[in-house]
């Protein structure tokens, strides 16, 4: 006769609802350009929400992007899908149209224009995203009853976080307000109209960006010759937000977007979304995805060790605390909330700063490389052949090549050979050889993971360590397969999370699967990573 033990079974049944109940609200925070080294260096001086998450959550200091070119659009796409660009198709912020030789955005969609902003060729929809996102999976798992709202200072950040089935809203620098595209809705929701009306661009036009803390709290010098002065901000505090204009306009809207004062603006927009959409108010799980963009803009213009970046991190610390508190209230407490915080890429120091410290660092101008390569190919093959470099990708074009008058394979291999001989380049591979060439120093595999045939270049290359690709003579950049660009933090907190510091290196493709596991839904279809079970309290 079959017998069962009543007490153990009863205890198991009592435990099942708790195990099977996902958090009401998931707060998915991405910080643009928050590399591991930047956070670890600043952490001892932080006192707000960012510090609290690292201290009390599951903290992974070393999550690595596995592909060669960590950039904003592919980074957010990888975080959202759990896949590398070879699967999700988003290889960079921009790609080159071979027919025209001109750059174009990676999320364009002429059939779904932006609402309440001038027509443009900017990012507007997820039509080019080739993989399912964790947001899509949540929507499908809840029969589209669970809501997903993504907010960012950049369209290319909000769009992949929202996926195809969520709602994405972003700050448009041409009009100075939050907008969206017709992919998502035919009219801005009432809560966003109210928010835009209550926060007109004139509200911050007369303000200045002042240091948040006493000047004695900042390390180094405020004025450095290799910092940028774009949009009239200047190199030293205080920074005016007028954009050099006498009345509000696009230049001023961009100056505000660069400044960390925009961090609070994003938090206010998140509050309006939470209240307007009723996020976290019932047992159906919702997701609020927020990407802070000011950190990246400050990084590019001033560098990661500048006073401006230090101040931005102090302000981010407060903004994260405000955002988490907002989400806790919406979900009815931390027990109903899952918090995820990570970044889309890290970033290099200003190369001149590295060089001054004795590091073999250089600024590499892609325009000069393009010109030299074009001249070499024309000399070798004759006719009209052009080379256009976008970060680590070389796009080849011209009538001679397109008309079949020369062997395309030979031209691509000749271009790779020429690049390899340049002092700043450590490796170059024609697309024809990408999957057969030996993996020199482990750099070919990252190129493969970042390659998507329809959008990537004809030749891929890697610069030497501490060499920064930049069209500007000041500031800095990111997008190489080195630790300072690839490594970012991952922090989990809230429902079902086992706190601790986990120093093993993980992949950023693990983020989406981990969120899906915490929500107890299936993994995104193209995910390559795996759930970080050791950080989930009931994981085995």
From TrEMBL:
Gene3D superfamilies: 3.30.1360.150, Alkaline Phosphatase, subunit A (3.40.720.10). It comes from Archangium minus. This is Alkaline phosphatase family protein. It holds the Pfam family Phosphodiest. Residues 1-20 form the signal peptide. Keywords: Metal-binding, Phosphoprotein, Signal. It comes from the Bacteria.
């Amino acid at each position: 006769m079959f017998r069962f033990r009543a007490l153990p079974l009863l205890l198991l049944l009592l435990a099942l609802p708790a195990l099977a109940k996902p958090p009401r609200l998931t707060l998915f925070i991405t910080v643009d350009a928050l590399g591991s080294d930047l956070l670890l260096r600043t952490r001892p001086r932080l006192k707000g929400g960012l510090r609290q998450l690292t201290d009390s959550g599951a903290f992974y200091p070393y999550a690595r992007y596995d592909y060669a070119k960590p950039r904003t659009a592919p980074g957010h796409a990888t975080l959202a899908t759990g896949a590398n660009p070879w699967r999700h198709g988003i290889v960079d912020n921009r790609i080159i149209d071979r027919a025209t030789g001109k750059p174009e955005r990676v999320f364009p969609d002429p059939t779904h224009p932006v609402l309440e902003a001038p027509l443009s060729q900017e990012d507007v929809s997820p039509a080019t995203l080739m993989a399912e996102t964790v947001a899509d999976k949540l929507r499908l798992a809840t029969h589209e009853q669970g809501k997903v709202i993504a907010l960012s200072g950049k369209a290319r950040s909000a769009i992949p976080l929202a996926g195809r089935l969520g709602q994405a809203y972003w700050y448009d620098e041409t009009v100075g307000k939050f907008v969206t595209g017709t992919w998502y809705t035919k009219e801005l929701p009432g809560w966003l109209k109210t928010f835009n009306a209550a926060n007109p661009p004139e509200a911050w036009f007369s303000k200045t960006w002042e240091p948040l803390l006493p000047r004695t709290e900042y390390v180094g010098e405020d004025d450095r010759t290799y910092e940028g002065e774009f949009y009239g901000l200047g190199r030293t505090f205080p920074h005016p937000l007028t954009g050099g204009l006498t009345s509000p306009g696009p230049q001023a809207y961009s100056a505000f977007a660069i400044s960390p004062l925009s961090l609070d603006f994003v938090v206010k927009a998140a509050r309006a979304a939470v209240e307007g959409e009723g996020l976290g108010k019932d047992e159906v799980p919702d997701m609020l995805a927020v990407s802070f963009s000011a950190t990246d803009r400050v990084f590019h213009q001033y560098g990661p060790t500048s006073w401006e970046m230090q101040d931005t991190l102090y302000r981010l610390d407060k903004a994260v605390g405000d955002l988490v508190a907002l989400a806790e209230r919406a979900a009815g407490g931390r027990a109903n909330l899952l918090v995820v915080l990570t970044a889309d890429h890290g970033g290099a120091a200003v190369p001149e700063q590295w060089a001054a410290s004795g590091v073999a660092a250089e600024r590499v101008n892609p325009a000069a490389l393009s010109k030299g390569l074009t001249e070499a190919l024309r000399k070798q093959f004759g006719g009209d052949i052009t080379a256009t470099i976008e970060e680590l990708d070389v796009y080849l074009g011209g009538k001679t090549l397109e008309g079949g008058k020369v062997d395309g394979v030979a031209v691509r291999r000749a271009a790779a050979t020429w690049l390899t001989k340049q002092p700043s380049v450590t490796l170059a591979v024609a697309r024809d050889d990408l999957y057969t060439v030996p993996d020199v120093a482990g750099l070919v595999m990252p190129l493969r993971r970042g390659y998507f045939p329809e959008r990537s270049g004809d030749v891929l290359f890697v610069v030497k360590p501490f060499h920064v690709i930049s069209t500007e003579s000041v500031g800095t950049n990111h997008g190489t397969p080195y630790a300072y660009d690839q490594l970012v933090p991952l922090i989990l907190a809230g429902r079902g999370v086992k706190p601790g510091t986990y120093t093993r290196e993980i992949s950023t493709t693990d983020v989406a699967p981990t969120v899906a596991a915490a929500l107890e839904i299936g993994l995104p279809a193209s995910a390559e990573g795996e759930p970080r079970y050791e950080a989930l309290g009931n994981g085995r």
